[in-house]
Amino acid sequence: MAEQKRERILSGIQPTGEMQIGNYFGAVQNWVRLQDSYECFFGIVDLHAITMPYQPEQLRKNTERLAVDLIACGIDPGKSLLFIQSLIPEHTDLCWIVSCFCSFGNLTRMTQFKEKSEQLKSQSKDHFFSAGLFTYPVLQAADILIYKASVVPVGQDQKQHLELTADIARRFNNEFGEVFVEPKILFTETPKVMSLADPSKKMGKSLGPKHYIGLFEEEESIRAKVRTAVTDSGVLPEGVEMSPGLENLFEILGACGKVDLVSEMKRDYKAGKLKYSLLKESVADALVELTGNLRASRAEIKPKAVQKSVEEMSMKARAVARETLREVRELAGLPARSVGD
């Protein structure tokens, strides 16, 4: 009996520096699980990273490090294709074509552009908003459509972008013929990890070191940050059973796989017997175990070998992208070009 063809997944991550636990619990941990059920294409999307202020040499280092880190986390080159976006020029070729099938009105409604614009305003008085920041959802659509990915795992914050991608695919297909696959959204049950110092905000490196925990961070630093994590935040509003800070610590503990411990401690909390110091210690222990295992895994990896492997996988991904672009050019009335171009 022939093996049933697996659905293809596409997902990407920006090389913006050290990965933090929010990246891992929110995406990468799930990617590792999906490898056994889907045909997986995972991209290090460095072109998306340049939509915000950056340093060129740091971007190169971040890209190289992220490839190593992803493999240390369990992304298996024997099961998945891990590619670097900028090594595959077909992404940007297709981006221009599909931008002509994306309405300006749809782009103006993208909430992430508004959020990142506000972030730029707060960082500098001399800020400006690049066209790339405004149009990057179109490049994201091209990233997905060029591999004919049928499934894209995302959190709720990316729902708008996936709907835009499906809309672009429909417009092109209706105009010129079926070539693009309309991707399905795979909402993954991933935790939303909040800042330890301000649990009203999503964990992120832009907030400063005390707000996040690096995925490969050392034990002493982790324990210090968890020890000072915000728990109670005053009188709770009516109907709210737990403060955001406590919820965040329980979320992190559960994401580390300590489900039984979470249940036990929540029972203690409801009974008024929970010691916050014990909760923090448990969270710190779980994170130290996780990061220690990941550091050990990364220590066994040879960066130069990873670099070569990722370049090879990028060329395999490019072969798929090139074929899709050939079909699109033909349907769109653009001249054919040689395979080597």
Identify the notable features of this structure and list them briefly:
341 residues; mainly alpha; three-stranded parallel β-sheet; two-stranded parallel ribbon; 5 strands
Description:
It contains 13 helices and five strands. With about 350 residues, it is mostly helical. The protein has a three-stranded parallel sheet with strand order 1-2-3. Strands 4-5 form a two-stranded parallel ribbon. α3 crosses α13. The longest helix has 30 residues, at about 305-330.
Structural class call reads mainly alpha
Cα-to-Cα separation, first versus last residue: 40 Å
Order of neighbouring strands in the sheet with most strands: 1-2-3
Helical residue percent band: 40-55%
Content of β-strand: 5-15%
Number of strands: 5
Task: Compose a concise summary of this entry.
The protein is mainly alpha-helical and 341 residues long.
How are the elements arranged and paired?
Elements: E1 8-13, H1 21-34, E2 39-44, H2 46-49, H3 56-73, E3 80-84, H4 90-99, H5 104-108, H6 111-123, H7 131-145, E4 151-154, H8 159-176, E5 184-187, H9 219-227, H10 244-255, H11 259-270, H12 276-299, H13 303-332
Parallel strand pairs: 1-2, 2-3, 4-5
Helix pairs in contact: 3-12, 3-13, 4-7, 4-13, 7-8, 9-12, 10-11, 10-12
